From TrEMBL:
Domain NADPH-dependent FMN reductase-like: 6-134
InterPro entries: Flavoprotein-like_sf, FMN_Rdtase-like_dom, NAD(P)H-dep_reductase
Entry-linked Gene3D superfamilies: 3.40.50.360
Pfam families in UniProt: FMN_red
PANTHER family assigned to the protein according to its UniProt record, in alphabetical order: CHROMATE REDUCTASE, NAD(P)H-DEPENDENT FMN REDUCTASE LOT6
Protein's name according to its UniProt entry: NAD(P)H-dependent oxidoreductase
Length: 178
């Protein structure tokens, strides 16, 4: 009898089609052990703007669905670009819908920022997920600077250093489950 798969919910912070962040999530999903099943969320742009007046016992249906995907997962991976020295508004919006919940509390989480620079965006990502009480450490977070020169159009990692960093990230993330 086979054991159930470890369910990972992956979120790209970019709403751009075939973004570097989406490619990295695809890359990770292809290299995780077969015991893992990754679902990449593609509805970030369709989430309604956060409004505390709507964050009640009956939030919008898109938010219920988004939250349930986090709840039903064993872990979450977020890979995001940096926009104007911070997180993209669409990702921050999604995370704001989680503040009044405990769905990230002790949720095993991998955090990647892949951008031109990314330092400030990565710092903000870590701070927000720490505030949400997500479970991550130095080995399950990664900053990839100059990402466009490190991944090609087909989603292949062309930088040996980046491939090694992603391999280490993947192993560390897996070790939190197996």
């Amino acid at each position: 009898m086979t054991s159930p798969k470890v369910k990972i919910f992956a979120i790209s912070g970019s709403t751009r089609n075939n973004s570097s962040n989406f490619k990295i999530l695809k890359y990770i999903s292809n290299y995780l052990k077969p015991e893992f099943e990754v679902a990449i969320f593609e509805g970030l742009a369709s989430l309604p703007h956060f409004n505390p007046d709507l964050d009640t016992d009956t939030p919008p249906k898109e938010i219920i669905s988004f939250r349930n995907k986090i709840i039903d997962s064993d872990g979450v991976i977020i890979c995001t670009p940096e926009y104007v020295f911070s997180l993209p508004g669409s990702l921050k919006n999604a995370l704001e819908w989680c503040v009044s919940t405990t769905i990230f509390s002790n949720k095993r989480t991998g955090l990647l920022t892949a951008s031109a620079s990314g330092e400030m965006g990565h710092e903000h990502l870590l701070l927000i997920l720490k505030t949400l009480e997500a479970k991550f450490d130095d080995t399950t977070q990664l900053l990839i600077q100059g990402v466009r020169g490190k991944i090609n159009e087909q989603g292949e990692i062309v930088s040996k250093e980046t491939a090694e960093a992603l391999e280490n990230f993947i192993k560390s993330f897996e070790n939190h489950f197996l």
